[in-house]
Amino acid sequence: MVSVIQKKNRKFKEIDYYKNEVSNYFLLPFRFQKINFQKEILVNEVGDFLIVPIGTAEKIILKKISKIDDEELYFDLISNFFISEDPIPILLNVLEARYRTKKSFLEHFTALHIFVISLRCEHTCHYCQVSRVTENKDQFDMSLYNIDEGIKIMMQSPNPYITMEFQGGEALLAFNNIEYAVKRAKEEAILHQKNITFVICTNLAPLSDDMLPFIKEHNIMISSSLDGPAFIHNQNRHRPQRNSYELTIQGLEKCREALGEDNISALLTTTNLSLDYPGEIVDEYVQQGFRNIFLRPISPYGFATYNEKKNKYQTEKFLNFYKTAFDRIIDYNKKGYYIREDYATVILKKILTPFPVGYVDLQSPAGMINNVIVFNYDGKIYASDEARMLAEMNDFTFQLGVLGQSSYNDIFYGEKAMDIAENWTNESLAGCSECAFQAYCGADPVLNYATQGNMYGYRPTNVFCQKNMEIIRYLFNLMEDESIEKIFRSWITGHSE
Amino acid sequence: MKDIIKLNNELHFSLNEEIYSEDVVYKCFYWYGADFNIDINKIDSMFLINITSKLDSINHNELLVKIKQDLIDFKLRDIVTKETKNIRELLIAKAFAHFESDDNPLTEISDPIGFDPTNF
Amino acid sequence: MILKTKGNTYDIDAPIIGRVTRFPENIGYEILISENIFSKDWYRFKAVLSTNKIISSLEIPLIHSIKNLDHLNEGDIIIINTDGIVNTIYRVNSNHNFLLFTERCNSNCLMCSQPPKDRDDTEYFFNQYIQAIPLIPKDCLEIGITGGEPTLLGNRFLKLLNQLKEQLPETEIHCLTNGRSFAWENVAQKVGEIDNKRLMLAIPLYADVYHIHDYIVQAKDAFNQTVKGIYNLAKYGQRIEIRIVLHKQTIPRLAKLAKFIYKNMPFVEHIAFMGLEHEGYTSFNIDKLWIDPIDYQEELNDAVTYLSDFGMNVSIYNAQLCTLSENLWEYSRKSISDWKNIYFDECNKCDLLDQCGGMFASGVKKYSNSIKAVSISKLTNL
């Protein structure tokens, strides 16, 4: 029934038999950087890292790592794709797939479509250069025509998952238009087989009970603002009655009750005043039951100057604020209250997971155009929300077209887009191209332009660079503490224990 | 590093191109532009570097130590960049060349009875 | 558990495969177990088994003088070989049925529980299963495919997979393979084309670096082939489980292996860490393999919690709870096949006996010094 074909020697061999005999190894692309006085970090092309004693990179690059004497490190480097025993690694296909995955946010193209549904607002926040206190709907609300045209463009996105986000001014002041836009977009989404998500950004002050059923029916997410305790929030957000905080809290409660916890979030706008109260702000978020807080830097468009020193001072001040607030957040987590910081979480996902992160301000190629597009109330189309802010200061560098006039190709692949594209990959920017944190960072041509006068930017004095370099370094330092790394993992997966 | 001259808020020295390539020199001193005015001239195979502080004075010795360390680091980075240029281009090209099939292994499947996976 | 018995044969020229019954009226079955000397009913069956000594000239395929047939239940599927050996292929009362596709293997693992044989048995086993698979009850929950290395059946492997999908569309198919053949993309593609959503390919990966994996499986280039194979399978949408046997060679880089898996193959559906089984080659190589489980808890803990923290699905097999850190208990599964599983006398005093993974019967040869009954009242975390 069975035939014995051959007898083969199955004698066991020792481990050395299985080690390739190689005279030397080949380098694979990686970058390095000191992160403190003892350690440096090595980061490969797909963002995997090793933290090693200072001087290790030099040994590796000068081919002084011995397969015998430094066996553990040698094989760590092989395993993590820092070196290879073949000129082209046998498992290059793994690295290819990893790289493709990391950049796969590009695959589907623009998801987020921001509709500035009205420029009108009942607040007069001092840091806001955009909004108008007015009853003049004709002039400052998005017309139905522009809404229709915006939806047309949105439906041409190759992305099967799209988000329609309503911003202001105060979006809820034009609630009728939101109702119209949501219904219209839903009809079109069915025709174009799109999965569509809606978001309203609002300070919640104009929220009335009769809006909630519509918001609930269409699963609209509410993105609100909370700047901290009342004395900060009300100072930041001017209202004649000085009751912005109270209205926001009431609105949050109403929304949570009507829509559920998960459908409402709050954003922090950091101002000069906030910088003195990091602890109080974190406490306020915990008190209000939030499980996340987004410590956003002051928008440079508020203090935008070409003044290097002032920018640097502001960045340092922000970083101090960030770290103090961050320590407080870690404390809460250690005490058992799960609350994550969103900016760090974006970076940590890039550091610790093999997945891409679709966060428009920290991508390369940049998120503008690729992931987000802005339709202004007046029909003008911008590359990002910040680009629209610039336009409000009469700088139309990043205007890509006009609704109803520009074609999809004009907008997304036109000359303007191509100009921006020259500057939106950090792989090709001076100062970034050999930076160890490149894989965790991004490029922001609008911010470069606003703070340094050109889209390319100059890294040594660049606020984006200063801020991200320090935050990323800081996160790596914190991670040396295993209990903190454990907290970071819980932020990434959202699992609280 | 030769011909070091220390002035009040200036530092001058020269670098041999055979030791530090143009790429290394420019990439290194790029980062000094925030606090210093940098002047790079090339005569024969020497780079003449003139550094002037934008502030009042400089600690020459501290600065020299930092520059030397940075030059080494940027030289190392340059080695990686140049040595891995081809593999990096290949990696990125293949990463975006989506569903292209890979070559089969050239290694042995090592079945004593002669299984041949290509016959599947 | 008895899976094999033997008797004397009449009129068996080729292997006969079928389901057994003790009731002659069950004419849907193929093989009758009869305690009579003769019955006309015998003619309705493909073969007859008996413990009696029979002298026959009936021209009915017959195995007689079998010592004992108590291990066979109604509906069990057996194969009667021409030499009188009767093997059980499928037991209706077990959840641990597996189909051994071949005893050939292109690897030679240090701890192989079923050492390979260098003879071509693939035609024999193919013929066996092509007949047996249609007889397996359609409500069978799960069935394993094992070896040897099943893919060495080549196109016959595909035919059997196809047949399993057609005949048992509701059954989970769990195929143990070293994954190396899938490094050849055509192999992965062909399996992908079968498109069985209930097929899971369980593939061992023993280290994050080639030389340790290759040493453990005693085959050069195996690591690169397996990793490439996993990638090819993923490309064709196949479900993958990674299996890691815990022993002296895998422990030192275990946490690094966990990281390698999450970073490079986060698409795998399940990762199983498995205690050492003392069968086959293990005893021979015990000096290279043995490490008391109590001495690798830190490494195991790091690897398991890392993967779990990042949302991966992790299990620990073949572990006794008393040798496992308390925080790893939630990952421990009772995975040892019923017929291989034993407990010690000490275990009868243990409050956690019901939840314990137990011990391979062969584990009595060498086991942890820390085996001891656990008393719930002494636990802090429960």
Report on the structure:
- The complex is a heterotrimer of chains A (497), B (120) and C (382).
- Chain A is an alpha/beta fold and 497 residues long.
- Chain A has 19 helices and 15 strands.
- In chain A, the strands form four sheets. Chain A has an eight-stranded mixed beta sheet, with helices on both faces. Chain A has a three-stranded antiparallel beta sheet with strand order 2-3-4, with no helix packed on it.
- Chain B is α+β, with helices and mostly antiparallel strands and 120 residues long.
- Chain B has one domain: 2-Layer Sandwich (Gyrase A, domain 2), CATH 3.30.1360.
- Helices cover 38% and strands 24% of the residues of chain B.
- Chain B has helices at 22-30, 60-83, 85-96, and strands at 2-7, 10-16, 36-43, 46-53.
- A four-stranded antiparallel beta sheet of chain B has the order 1-2-4-3, with helices on one face.
- In chain B, helix 1 (22-30) packs across helix 2 (60-83).
- Chain B is rod-shaped and about 80 Å long.
- The mean pLDDT of chain B is 93.
- Chain C has eight helices and 17 strands.
- The longest helix of chain C has 14 residues, at 222-235.
- In chain C, the strands form three sheets. In chain C, strands 1-8-7-3-4-5-6-2 form an eight-stranded mixed beta sheet. In chain C, strands 9-10-11-12-13-14-15 form a seven-stranded parallel beta sheet, covered by helices on one side.
- Chains in contact: A-B, A-C, B-C.
- The B-C interface holds B 101-102, 104-105, 107-113, 115-120 and C 104-107, 118-120, 149, 151-152, 154-155, 158, 180-181, 183-187, 190, 219-222, 224-225, 228.
